[in-house]
Amino acid sequence: MPAIKALPDYLRECQEQVEGHARDYGLDFFPIAYEVLDYKTMNEVAAYGGFPTRYPHWRFGMDYEQLAKSYEWGMSKIYEMVINTNPAYAYLLEGNSMIDQKLVMAHVCAHVDFFKNNYYFSKTNRKMIDGMANHAARVRRHMERHGQDVVEEFIDTCLSLDNLIDPMSPFIQRSAAPKADTGEEDLRDNSGRLRSKGYMESFINPPEYLEAQKKKREDEAKKIKKRFPEQPQRDVLAFIIQHARLEPWQRDCLEIVRDEAYYFAPQGQTKIMNEGWATYWHSKILTEKTVTAAEIIDYADACSGVLATSPGQLNPYKLGVELLRNIEERWNKGQFGKAWDECESMEQKRNWDLRTGLGRKKIFEVRKMFNDITFIDEFFTLEFCLEQKFYAFGFQERSGSWEIMSREFKKVKDQLLKMLTNRGQPVIVVEDGNFENRSELLLKHIHEGVDLDNGQARDTLRNASKLWTRPVSLLTKVEGKGKLLRCEDGNHTERSADYSL
Amino acid sequence: MSQKIDLDHGRFRQIIRGKIKQNLRKYISQGEMIAKKGKDRVSIPIPSVDIPHFKHGDKQQGGVGQGQGEVGDSLGQGEEQPGGPGKASDRPGDHLLDIDVSLQELAEIMGEELELPRILPKGTEKIVAWKDKYSGIRTTGPESLRHFRRTYRQAMRRQIAMGTYDAKNPVIVPIREDKRYRSWRKEPLPQSNAVIIYMMDVSGSMGDEQKEIVRLESFWLETWLTSQYHGIESRYIIHDAMAKEVDRDTFFKTRESGGTMISSAYKLCAKIIEEDYPSTLWNIYPFHFSDGDNWSVDDTHTCVELLKKDVLPHVNLFAYGQVESPYGSGQFIKDLTEHFEDDERVVTSEIKGKEAIMDSIKEFLGKGK
After folding, report:
1. Is A372 part of any domain?
2. Nearest C-alpha of chain B: how many angstroms from A271?
3. A317, A350: one domain
4. What would the CATH number be for the domain defined by B193-365?
5. Taking the model in full, what pTM does it have?
6. What was the ipTM of the complex prediction?
7. Which of helix, strand or coil describes residue A161?
């Protein structure tokens, strides 16, 4: 980290003012350390995902070039950046107008409040600045020992699989050992015989039944013996780390990539909510407290830029803030619960107001408990969909263009949920770590209606087989038919296969 | 910190360079890159720089949007998904990454890959251009060149010396003697100029495919020569039975029918050289492309004579590229080889198709002339 320069006085005052209002509203955030950066440094830090201490890798250079270029061409400009640490670091762009800086600070307060309180961030490492620096030191050490090209290429390979993690796994308590004797008395003994009094034996345990039981147990035993992992495993990276034949430094690099992927995962899971929450609060704090009459036009201009929508693009800021406002209004007016759900008169619903005034309390609860999927699933209603003019679009082969497909509530919502499932990534699991008894790896794509991008899948499979050091296969569906892609020593084969396996 | 990103950025550019080199043959034989040419940069689509991931195919996926429009309204043509729903739009797409490369860098990459020798310009020491360079300060000059800071500094110095400077009310008024002006010096600028004279047969037997090859090849030749000389000019001659000078656009678009008299082009070429490009001052590169079908044996003789007498004595290199065409006899290249086999200044190359462009470039430029 570069030395943190003291914030100029006028910004310091501004920060105190904004944070004071934020606290009055009930926001609860880590201390925030601001730093003012010029646009070039801002682009650099952004290329590193907000962490100036990342390990050396060319893709940061690539991102930097793209950011720098789109800034120079006036296409985009990064206003602010904030990272999830305690204390939280946030960056301000030098030369922004006062109103922009105020807006950014209010926005940042809400982000940090979200980081601190949202359940999905609860397992993240709040000292990640140090974490990243340690990662960098480890990668550098490996580079010194094994050569930059070798290590960098290996990291490329690891990064290719960095979306194959299980973001929910930090929250799952798994018993370490297979379930031992639960204490509950099993009604059967080892042979599957049910307990019975002697004279009932032939009725309760007829020979055919015992025979069937025996066979069933044998089958089960066979299955369990064959299955490795016992359950299909979502965290493909962890499986590879545990079971692939890797050099220690390779395992270390893979662990670093996995660690960082888990660190960033909650941000992908809560993009809409997080941005919605921040937008809600910057607009609240600014319009109700800090904006002066002279600044209001500039504020409105900046705000409209944030909330603009364009065809075929979902603006998470817009969706998030509108949905939060909708929730607040509904809970203020008591538009929830059994009576509301069962009411069928639109007229009555429109004028429904019980003056419950629970809105503010509700949205704080929402920010604590929900992620994007549950947020949309729970609160994206027919009324909201109509009011906000949502539509689902898709590719029309006939005309060769992207078209609005439907404005039907159910279709829109389904599409939205589909896009958010697993952060929009396909679900891939380790199905078999000893495929066909040749210590090959079998991955399975849990097909949910959308095929994989074939070219990318092949390249990724090649990388997976580099990590596994043995051939890797992927079971998926292409146009409704089961397909098994296999990669051995960089060569691909493809055959049709039984998808259910 | 700034050094850190520079390292990563440097790595990235290095990887790009490697990719371009690897795929140079493909880029050379494809026109799409030239279509994106800017003033001194080209945009090159680089495949698979980005790290591959398992991801959904676009087309079945669709997305959700917000706003006006009827069902069935179009959101945008083409394969690319508009915007990329739900994603920040600043991420690079997964397909091809367009990378900007300067022509200078491209020429270097080509030079390395084809192992082209650097050209030793002839007569460099004779050719000198003068360039004005601001190099100092003086007390007289036009007001437009007045050096603001130096003038005020001088005025301040004078006022302090005279005791009329008041730190509480720091008003500085320069007088005439305080004024300072930028001055310049003429510097010799060693310069080597080159001219490329393109000649192309546009008779009926040269089809679109043949012209495309010429267009690609001339782009790469020009890229290389541009990197070797400070200033480069291009002239364009088309010919069938008659030759005329045209502009670049016309050069690549014209299609005539009729016969072929190559001598007409060489005559015009010799005339241009004589009128505009004294060979003491210019490095001259005539490039001639044809399908090798000349009108008559007599005309071929005339050509050889013209080359010997009026063209070759002036030029660095005379390059003849013969594009294979289903109609041409391909005789002319044999005639040239027969007469100029031992002449270092003449290079001939047969270009069988787009794939052969790279080899042909190597033949043309491999001599370092």
Report:
1. yes
2. 9
3. yes
4. 3.40.50.410
5. 0.75
6. 0.81
7. coil
